[in-house]
């Protein structure tokens, strides 16, 4: 890959970084004396402009020759995830406009943009070093964002926990990467997978497996999969609402896109090995083919643990933010199931992308509502939502749609996301195991309805203790209505998003 | 599912009007949504919005009709479809779409035009109802869904609209839900039509499974086009039927439920509990005709594989059911006293004519009667509504009389509708459309019985309508308060409908069979040679004589006499037993009550008994056993285990339960768990990959 190509393929990241510097420059250079509302608005608008510029850069990124020395890929899952990362970042910046937790909006927006740049990198990364650099850029920014409410003790506490846990898992990840490099002699995902399948590394199985487990720690931490999820409830609870929305949506989208990229790379190996991919898939026992079988096993274990633990723990929560954290863990479990039974066609990748994009969108909306209620009532306990329907019917309606979508009720988009994902799992591999796991996932989706309805019951059914109206500010309302409308429309016309995602792939 | 691109792909061959055809149902449905959000006192905006949206639909329908007409006149393409994939299901795509062809175009115009007139009429009729807004909300939803049924090119879309139409029918029959009889009638209508819909749905699933497409027309690969039909014909469904025939019969079951054919007609007379405009729009002109329209829409399926006698098993069944219904309902209508119930049975009877017409003579014959009937029956219902309104909500014809003096406009328009329904020769549309059906029945070469049944039905029709008109408009006034004429907003739609009840006959006379030519897509030259077909003249003469006979008999029995309200009917005196049977609607309801409903009640009692005694007993026994086991355990616990257990418990509860222990909030613990997890994962992996 020559430097011109490298520059072209990192144009979106460059745009974000320039925007980050510009925000700092404008905010600290010209607006130090300005009112806080002005500073926040200017910073957010500049940040959104940066996202739009990066979106434009993504859209003009041409296809590259897909060699094995690739650092970054374009199109396919990378394209979808990059667009989603940028759009969701812009939405969380819009939520910032109406919030008041910080006196340093310039720094906040700059850090958000850097985190988004990290997200863009890992969405497209094909090389261990790029992955690690992107992950660290993302993670370090997120630690800062979590701690950004400087008056809040909770914010600082959760940030330090997040940081310690994150540093530890990053160490594991790097250790695993070093093993992989040592065993295969390459940092490129395709080369590694090739070497693990046929090269000398194939004989060093136990060591290879240890390396994979280490890598799984680092990535499991990013997607908050049980048992590497422990940071999530604290962070979701302590971080300022826009930051929490960012962590729950953008960072998740990018991290899952990375997992999709890894899965795709492992499968492309077979394309290089044999022309007839089907022959490989069915001619030999899959489990001995390089990294695929152990990787699938690890993901399956994480998926099952996340589904069970996430859903059961969510039942016992009394804080809506923690509830959302455990629900996100449960959703991560479903997605990991789709990644564990990955298909050599694009079916699984597209189903997972559909899921993460829509889930990210819905989560931002949910945190938006929680943020508004929290500011009016001063708490995110379940009781804070009592009688919301009387206090602000619009917010209540938004909450209804978003939570039902998270629970997977048709015709909302969450239903189609689950449906596609589970269908992809069943189509990819027959047999009792995937069927049992999907049955388990469906069962736990039913369980999840209980805790979503616990919240909605307080919103709609239970008598209110306080009936004074709650007002939301116009930008927030606009964002929430937009998200809700998208959830309904995409749910009624599921083919819209499907065909949009498919349009990133050169062939079906 | 995902990898196949699912973009919205309109056929760019389709004309502009075909591409925006979806607006015709969408606008009234949208209006209904908006009205639903309005408050009770916002009466005027609600009515304006409903009428405005339907006027828009009528306008678009007229443009669409003009477009098809122009295409037909130039012998160009007359069927345009716009299809798109709703979503994908594995390799199957679930397609929706709409179609613009002569059948849809003419039906669109009829539904939106008659609907609009009835909307306007409702402004006057419902003026004093406090739930005026809700009424227009439902009415608008109905109109939208009905128009959706008409333009559907996908059997799934059709079924969805069909179900919405059923729902609005339920809502509107039960509009005065405070009346127990209205609530019961709504339930009866919903459940009875649903019974037919079950078969319809089976037919849809079967059709989809056999042809792999939900679309009717799709450039040669739709389910009503050559390839799929040929395939359906070769599949055997048992009992000597082809799959095409069996699916056709299943679909007919759905149509029979909606169109009140024997034996599923029982809901339609009860549906008259709804407001009269609803009876006119839904239970006379449009919704009940949806079943007929459905059969016309899937006619290629019903017709495929016709034998040497020109009919298939499915069509033969339709013909017999239709003819039997026509006579059956007409018989009952003779002995009813409720002005709307008479019309309801008359509707059932006429729907039987339409079904028979479809089966015996083809799409055009059935559809002609559907269109003319929609106009004159809507007119009759609106007239009945006007009478009821004028007589202070009285519906018993024995308590009316001599209204021709008090309500002259209603009388004249009603008389026109009545003569059209009877098939009075030459000047009224009903004559031409009914004559077409009789002619088709006469030339059917399987059996002549349907012809005689239908002719007898025509005689009865003329008779019971004369009886009704004599009771209502002639004789002397037998009510209490004086009757009054209805306001202009109610009279105007009736006058317009009366005009069409006469004029519409022009589009289907033997001299100029325009409608037949339009629907079958060939030219329609005007010539009086159409009358010269052998036997036609005699047939027309005979049917005219039948009508005159019916009118004469009716006048003879009821014309000049003015029976007291309590006095038994003239016929009752001569044949009390037959009369009682007819009056009690030939005991069909009682029969269902004694069989189906009694069976369900019995089954429910059995299930209840099973629940209480058998399953409940088992559960109680298990519970008792567990209780015993628990007591034993408790003994064991208290004696043996408690000591050690208490100690463990204390330890656990100091951490606050298992979950809280995991999520202790201490980051050191988090890291410990992480380390343990790594070891466990590695152990699982290595253990599973052992040689």
UniProtKB/TrEMBL annotation, chain A:
<feature type="transmembrane region" description="Helical">
    <location>
        <begin position="474"/>
        <end position="497"/>
    </location>
</feature>
<dbReference type="InterPro" id="IPR010096">
    <property type="entry name" value="NADH-Q_OxRdtase_suN/2"/>
</dbReference>
<feature type="transmembrane region" description="Helical">
    <location>
        <begin position="433"/>
        <end position="453"/>
    </location>
</feature>
<keyword id="KW-0472">Membrane</keyword>
<feature type="transmembrane region" description="Helical">
    <location>
        <begin position="323"/>
        <end position="345"/>
    </location>
</feature>
<keyword id="KW-1003">Cell membrane</keyword>
<keyword id="KW-1278">Translocase</keyword>
<feature type="domain" description="NADH:quinone oxidoreductase/Mrp antiporter transmembrane">
    <location>
        <begin position="125"/>
        <end position="262"/>
    </location>
</feature>
<dbReference type="GO" id="GO:0050136">
    <property type="term" value="F:NADH dehydrogenase (quinone) (non-electrogenic) activity"/>
</dbReference>
<feature type="transmembrane region" description="Helical">
    <location>
        <begin position="108"/>
        <end position="125"/>
    </location>
</feature>
<keyword id="KW-0997">Cell inner membrane</keyword>
<keyword id="KW-0812">Transmembrane</keyword>
<feature type="transmembrane region" description="Helical">
    <location>
        <begin position="394"/>
        <end position="413"/>
    </location>
</feature>
<dbReference type="GO" id="GO:0005886">
    <property type="term" value="C:plasma membrane"/>
</dbReference>
<keyword id="KW-0520">NAD</keyword>
<feature type="transmembrane region" description="Helical">
    <location>
        <begin position="131"/>
        <end position="150"/>
    </location>
</feature>
<comment type="similarity">
    <text>Belongs to the complex I subunit 2 family.</text>
</comment>
<feature type="transmembrane region" description="Helical">
    <location>
        <begin position="162"/>
        <end position="181"/>
    </location>
</feature>
<feature type="transmembrane region" description="Helical">
    <location>
        <begin position="351"/>
        <end position="373"/>
    </location>
</feature>
<dbReference type="GO" id="GO:0048038">
    <property type="term" value="F:quinone binding"/>
</dbReference>
<feature type="transmembrane region" description="Helical">
    <location>
        <begin position="207"/>
        <end position="231"/>
    </location>
</feature>
<dbReference type="GO" id="GO:0008137">
    <property type="term" value="F:NADH dehydrogenase (ubiquinone) activity"/>
</dbReference>
From TrEMBL, chain B:
<feature type="transmembrane region" description="Helical">
    <location>
        <begin position="615"/>
        <end position="632"/>
    </location>
</feature>
<dbReference type="InterPro" id="IPR001750">
    <property type="entry name" value="ND/Mrp_TM"/>
</dbReference>
<feature type="transmembrane region" description="Helical">
    <location>
        <begin position="452"/>
        <end position="477"/>
    </location>
</feature>
<feature type="transmembrane region" description="Helical">
    <location>
        <begin position="411"/>
        <end position="432"/>
    </location>
</feature>
<feature type="transmembrane region" description="Helical">
    <location>
        <begin position="278"/>
        <end position="296"/>
    </location>
</feature>
<feature type="domain" description="NADH:quinone oxidoreductase/Mrp antiporter transmembrane">
    <location>
        <begin position="152"/>
        <end position="449"/>
    </location>
</feature>
<feature type="transmembrane region" description="Helical">
    <location>
        <begin position="237"/>
        <end position="257"/>
    </location>
</feature>
<dbReference type="Pfam" id="PF00662">
    <property type="entry name" value="Proton_antipo_N"/>
</dbReference>
<feature type="transmembrane region" description="Helical">
    <location>
        <begin position="49"/>
        <end position="73"/>
    </location>
</feature>
<dbReference type="GO" id="GO:0003954">
    <property type="term" value="F:NADH dehydrogenase activity"/>
</dbReference>
<feature type="transmembrane region" description="Helical">
    <location>
        <begin position="198"/>
        <end position="217"/>
    </location>
</feature>
<dbReference type="InterPro" id="IPR001516">
    <property type="entry name" value="Proton_antipo_N"/>
</dbReference>
<dbReference type="GO" id="GO:0042773">
    <property type="term" value="P:ATP synthesis coupled electron transport"/>
</dbReference>
<keyword id="KW-0472">Membrane</keyword>
<feature type="transmembrane region" description="Helical">
    <location>
        <begin position="374"/>
        <end position="391"/>
    </location>
</feature>
<dbReference type="InterPro" id="IPR018393">
    <property type="entry name" value="NADHpl_OxRdtase_5_subgr"/>
</dbReference>
<protein>
    <submittedName>
        <fullName>NADH dehydrogenase I, L subunit</fullName>
    </submittedName>
</protein>
<feature type="transmembrane region" description="Helical">
    <location>
        <begin position="586"/>
        <end position="603"/>
    </location>
</feature>
<dbReference type="Pfam" id="PF00361">
    <property type="entry name" value="Proton_antipo_M"/>
</dbReference>
<feature type="transmembrane region" description="Helical">
    <location>
        <begin position="535"/>
        <end position="555"/>
    </location>
</feature>
<feature type="transmembrane region" description="Helical">
    <location>
        <begin position="103"/>
        <end position="123"/>
    </location>
</feature>
<keyword id="KW-0812">Transmembrane</keyword>
């Amino acid at each position: 890959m020559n430097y011109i190509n490298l520059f072209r393929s990192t144009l979106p990241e460059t745009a974000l970084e320039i925007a980050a510097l510009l925000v700092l420059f404008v905010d600290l250079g010209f607006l130090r004396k300005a009112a806080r509302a002005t500073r926040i608005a200017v910073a957010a608008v500049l940040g959104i402009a940066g996202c739009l510029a990066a979106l434009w850069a993504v859209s003009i990124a041409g296809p590259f020759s897909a060699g094995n020395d690739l650092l970054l890929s374009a199109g396919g899952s990378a394209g979808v995830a990059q667009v989603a990362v940028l759009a969701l970042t812009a939405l969380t910046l819009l939520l910032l406009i109406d919030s008041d937790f910080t006196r340093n909006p310039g720094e906040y927006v700059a850090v958000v943009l850097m985190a988004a740049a990290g997200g863009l990198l890992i969405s497209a990364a094909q090389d261990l070093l790029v992955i690690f650099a992107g992950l660290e850029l993302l993670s370090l920014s997120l630690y800062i964002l979590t701690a950004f409410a400087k008056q809040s003790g909770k914010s600082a506490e959760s940030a330090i926990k997040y940081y310690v846990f994150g540093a530890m898992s990053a160490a594991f990840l790097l250790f695993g990467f070093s093993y992989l490099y040592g065993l295969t002699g390459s940092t490129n995902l395709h080369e590694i997978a090739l070497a693990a399948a046929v090269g000398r590394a194939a004989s060093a199985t136990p060591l290879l497996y240890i390396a994979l487990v280490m890598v799984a720690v680092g990535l499991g931490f990013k997607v908050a999969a049980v048992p590497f999820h422990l940071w999530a409830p604290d962070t979701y609870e302590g971080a300022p609402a826009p930051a929490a929305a960012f962590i729950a949506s953008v960072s998740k989208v990018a991290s899952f896109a990375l997992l999709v990229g890894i899965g795709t790379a492992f499968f492309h190996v077979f394309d290089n090995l044999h022309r007839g991919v089907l022959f490989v898939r069915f001619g030999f026992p899959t489990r001995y083919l390089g990294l695929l079988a152990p990787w699938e096993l690890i993901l399956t274990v994480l998926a099952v643990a996340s589904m069970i633990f996430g859903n059961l723990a969510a039942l016992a929560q009394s804080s809506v933010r923690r509830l959302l954290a455990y629900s996100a863990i449960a959703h991560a479990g479903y997605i990991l199931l789709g990644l564990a039974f990955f298909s050599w066609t694009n079916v699984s990748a597209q189903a997972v992308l559909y899921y993460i994009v829509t889930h990210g969108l819905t989560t931002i909306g949910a945190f938006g509502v929680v943020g508004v209620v929290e500011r009016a009532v001063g708490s995110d306990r379940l009781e804070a939502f009592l009688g919301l329907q009387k206090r602000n019917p619009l917010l209540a309606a938004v909450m209804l749609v978003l939570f039902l979508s998270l629970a997977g009720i048709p015709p909302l988009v969450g239903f189609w996301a689950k449906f596609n994902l589970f269908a992809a799992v069943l189509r990819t591999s027959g047999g009792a195991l995937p069927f049992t796991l999907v049955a388990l996932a469906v069962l736990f989706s039913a369980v999840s309805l209980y805790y979503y309805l616990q919240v909605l019951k307080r919103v709609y059914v239970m008598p209110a203790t306080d009936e004074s109206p709650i007002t939301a500010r116009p930008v927030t309302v606009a964002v929430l209505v937009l998200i809700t409308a998208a959830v309904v429309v995409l749910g009624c016309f599921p083919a819209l998003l499907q065909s949009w995602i498919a349009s990133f792939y050169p062939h079906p | 599912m995902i990898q196949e691109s699912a973009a919205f792909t309109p056929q760019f061959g389709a004309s502009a009007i075909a591409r925006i055809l979806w607006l015709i149902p969408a606008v009234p449905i949208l209006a209904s949504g908006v009205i639903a959000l309005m408050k009770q006192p916002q009466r005027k905006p609600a009515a304006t919005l409903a009428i405005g949206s339907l006027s828009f639909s009528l306008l678009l329908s007229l443009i669409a009709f003009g477009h098809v007409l122009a295409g037909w006149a130039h012998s160009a393409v007359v069927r345009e479809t716009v299809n798109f994939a709703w979503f994908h299901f594995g390799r199957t795509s679930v397609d929706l779409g709409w179609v613009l062809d002569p059948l849809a175009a003419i039906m669109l115009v009829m539904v939106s035009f008659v609907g609009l007139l009835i909307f306007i009429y409702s402004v006057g009729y419902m003026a004093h109802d406090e739930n005026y807004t809700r009424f227009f909300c439902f009415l608008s939803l109905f109109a939208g869904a009905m128009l959706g049924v008409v333009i559907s090119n996908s059997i799934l879309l059709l079924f969805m609209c069909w179900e919405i139409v059923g729902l609005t029918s339920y809502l509107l029959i039960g509009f005065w839900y405070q009346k127990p009889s209205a609530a019961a009638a709504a339930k009866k209508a919903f459940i009875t039509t649903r019974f037919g819909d079950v078969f319809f749905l089976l037919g849809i699933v079967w059709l989809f499974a056999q042809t792999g497409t939900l679309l009717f027309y799709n450039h040669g690969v739709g389910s009503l086009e050559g390839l799929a039909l040929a395939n359906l014909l070769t599949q055997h469904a048992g009992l000597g039927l082809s799959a095409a025939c069996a699916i056709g019969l299943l679909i007919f079951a759905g149509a029979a439920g909606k169109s009140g054919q024997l034996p599923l007609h029982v809901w339609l007379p009860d549906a008259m509990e709804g407001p009269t405009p609803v009876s006119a729009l839904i239970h006379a002109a449009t919704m009940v005709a949806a079943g007929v329209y459905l059969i016309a829409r899937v006619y290629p399926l019903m017709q495929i594989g016709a034998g040497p006698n020109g009919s298939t098993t499915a069509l033969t069944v339709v013909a017999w059911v239709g003819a039997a219904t026509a006579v059956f309902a007409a018989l009952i209508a003779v002995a009813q006293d409720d002005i709307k119930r008479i019309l309801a049975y008359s509707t059932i009877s006429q729907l039987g004519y339409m079904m028979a017409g479809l089966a015996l003579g083809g799409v055009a014959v059935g559809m002609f009667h559907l269109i003319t009937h929609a106009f004159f029956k809507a007119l009759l219902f609106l007239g009945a509504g006007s009478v009821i309104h004028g007589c202070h909500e009285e519906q018993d014809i024995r308590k009316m009389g001599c209204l021709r003096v008090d309500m002259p406009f209603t009388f004249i328009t009603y008389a026109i509708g009545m003569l059209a329904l009877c098939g009075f020769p030459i000047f009224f549309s009903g004559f031409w459309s009914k004559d077409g059906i009789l002619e088709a029945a006469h030339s059917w070469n399987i059996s002549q019985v349907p012809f005689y049944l239908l002719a007898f039905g025509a005689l009865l029709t003329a008779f019971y309508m004369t009886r009704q008109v004599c009771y209502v408009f002639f004789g002397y006034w037998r009510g209490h308060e004086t009757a009054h004429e209805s306001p202009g907003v109610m009279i105007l739609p009736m006058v317009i409908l009366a005009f069409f009840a006469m004029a519409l006959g022009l589009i289907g006379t033997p001299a100029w069979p325009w409608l037949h030519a339009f629907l079958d897509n060939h030219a329609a030259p005007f010539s009086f040679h159409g009358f010269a077909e052998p036997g036609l003249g005699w047939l027309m003469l005979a049917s005219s004589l039948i009508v005159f006979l019916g009118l004469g008999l009716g006048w003879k029995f009821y014309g000049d006499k003015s029976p007291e309200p309590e006095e038994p009917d003239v016929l009752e005196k001569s044949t009390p037993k037959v009369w009682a049977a007819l009056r009690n609607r030939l005991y069909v309801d009682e029969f269902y009550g004694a069989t189906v409903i009694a069976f369900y009640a019995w089954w429910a009692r059995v299930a209840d008994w099973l629940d209480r005694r058998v399953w409940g007993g088992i559960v109680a026994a298990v519970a008792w056993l567990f209780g015993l086991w628990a007591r034993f355990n408790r003994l064991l616990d208290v004696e043996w285990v408690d000591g050690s257990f208490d100690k463990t418990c204390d330890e656990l509860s100091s951490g606050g339960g298992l979950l809280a222990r995991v999520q202790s909030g201490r980051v050191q613990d988090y890291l410990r768990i992480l380390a343990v997890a790594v070891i466990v994962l590695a152990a699982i992996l290595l253990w599973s990959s052992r040689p």
